[in-house]
Design a protein that fits this description.
- There is one protein chain.
- This protein is mainly alpha-helical.
- The strands form 2 sheets. The chain has a 3-stranded antiparallel beta sheet. Strands 2-3 form a two-stranded antiparallel sheet.
- A hairpin with a 2-residue loop joins strand 2 and strand 3.
- The longest helix is centred in the last third of the chain and has 34 residues.
- It is globular and about 80 Å long.
């Protein structure tokens, strides 16, 4: 405890770090306050009644989690940062397929600025398309929710939602520049973690009931949650280090190269994207059958066996697909050969690319299976009698994002401490930050 207090004091002593933390807290507070400001012309009481009766399963529940509840409240930040994430994913995929965007990615800072600009414009377009659909599905279909003229409400609310999303994006960029951690990821994390106190309170109350199992059962749930978090940290941080030897060069009186370095290939290079893609795919059959008046079958049974089995298989397949997009063995082999590096025992060029591809295939299999297990853990927890709101923190996208963002933020704080010759956050070793690929891909990450 004394070491923890000393660490907090050291953090507060560093003026720049203190200013960044206070700036981050202030901008996050603005975001949370804005998430409770309801769109003009919306009846909050009617929305609350509908929210209590509605189910938050599928992609709608995922968006509401990322938006910190603003989605279900019809807030001015109702769409949150999701349109920006969608635009970022589209730009990233274009970077894999379109030569122009591939060229921009190789132009350094100037190319990054252009990509950011394209992402912002695409965010406006995505939000303008999503906003009317959001209003039609989440507001118009609720009796008594709209209190003003329908056409004017649609126009003004669409403009407000577009402005709200751009403002949230601006807040995220300001946190990245002036605060601590990655702003976009931090905003998502705050939205997710804002549900945690209510979830714990609800679960604690249910366990104290006569048929709830008592305090011992609640403590066992907390212990199990800690083990799940440890496993998620291992999944996010796990790497396979490939040794790379660089040729020795002597220029004048100086020696260059001749050292051994490592290529850290992540066990889960795809991050949370396979879960998001799989959830989107699983939502399509339910949406189609819903429009046609059908029941949706197994695709509406979120906690059923076959739903989770198909969900896990899709996650494994998408993990391989997204890893193939994120990690290019041919490019790694070419860069290594160009810089005079080679893997001991492997010929440079094609053989090196084949070796890296083989290693990635081997480590992606256990990584994808582990990711699938983490994704379906909330369903298993619910089958064991855990409250649904608390069970969501036992795995899935929420837990992986929380783990990744917290590790990244702690690593930045520790960097400031070590630069000022203070002790780090850990008594031994250092907090290892995650790579950008372990989170939702955004151009600011």
């Amino acid at each position: 405890m004394k070491r923890f207090i000393d660490t907090l004091q050291n953090i507060w002593k560093i003026e720049e770090l203190r200013a960044r933390i206070l700036t981050t807290l202030g901008l996050v507070l603005i975001y949370r306050l804005g998430s409770y400001v309801v769109l003009p012309g919306v009846n909050s009481a009617a929305l609350n009644e509908a929210k209590e009766a509605a189910s938050n399963d599928g992609i709608i529940g995922l968006i509401n989690i990322f938006a910190g509840g603003a989605f279900s409240r019809a807030s001015v930040f109702g769409l949150g940062i999701m349109p920006y994430i969608t635009a970022s994913i589209i730009i990233q995929l274009l970077g894999m397929a379109v030569p122009y965007f591939q060229k921009l990615q190789k132009e350094g800072e100037s190319g990054r600025k252009k990509i950011n600009q394209y992402t912002r414009f695409l965010t406006i377009a995505v939000t303008a398309v999503q906003a009317p659909g959001y209003l039609a599905s989440q507001v118009y279909n609720i009796p008594g929710a709209v209190t003003i003229d329908g056409s004017w409400f649609m126009i003004q609310s669409t403009m407000i939602l577009v402005t709200g999303t751009m403002f949230v994006m601006w807040l995220g960029e300001r946190i990245t520049d002036k605060g601590i951690g990655n702003g976009i990821s931090l905003i998502i994390m705050i939205g997710i973690i804002s549900r945690l106190p209510f979830a714990i309170t609800s679960e604690f109350g249910s366990r104290l009931q006569s048929s709830g199992g008592g305090l011992i059962m609640f403590l066992l749930e907390i212990v199990f949650l800690l083990f799940v978090i440890i496993g998620s940290i291992m999944l996010v941080q796990g790497t396979r280090r490939i040794p790379v030897q660089f040729a020795k060069k002597i220029v004048g009186n100086k020696q260059y190269g001749g050292v051994r370095q490592y290529i850290p290939l992540k066990v889960n290079a795809a991050g949370v994207m396979p879960i998001i893609f799989a959830q989107a795919i699983m939502f399509i059959p339910a949406a189609i059958t819903g429009f046609s008046g059908g029941t949706g079958g197994i695709f509406t049974e979120r906690y059923g066996f076959w739903y989770n089995f198909i969900f896990a298989v899709l996650i494994i397949l998408f993990t391989y697909f997204y890893t193939a997009i994120m990690v290019n063995p041919n490019q790694l082999a070419d860069d290594m050969k160009r810089n005079g590096g080679f893997i001991p025992g492997v010929k440079p060029g094609k053989k090196t690319a084949e070796f890296i591809d083989q290693v990635m295939s081997r480590i992606t299999l256990p990584g994808s299976i582990f990711l699938a297990v983490v994704a379906i853990l909330p369903s298993i927890a619910i089958k064991l009698g855990i409250n649904s709101s608390f069970a969501d923190f036992y795995g899935g996208t929420s837990l992986l994002i929380l783990v990744g963002v917290v590790l990244d933020t702690l690593q930045q704080i520790e960097t400031y401490l070590l630069m000022r010759q203070y002790d780090g956050l850990m008594s031994s070793g250092r907090v290892q930050g995650r790579q950008a690929s372990s989170s939702i891909p955004t151009t600011t990450l």
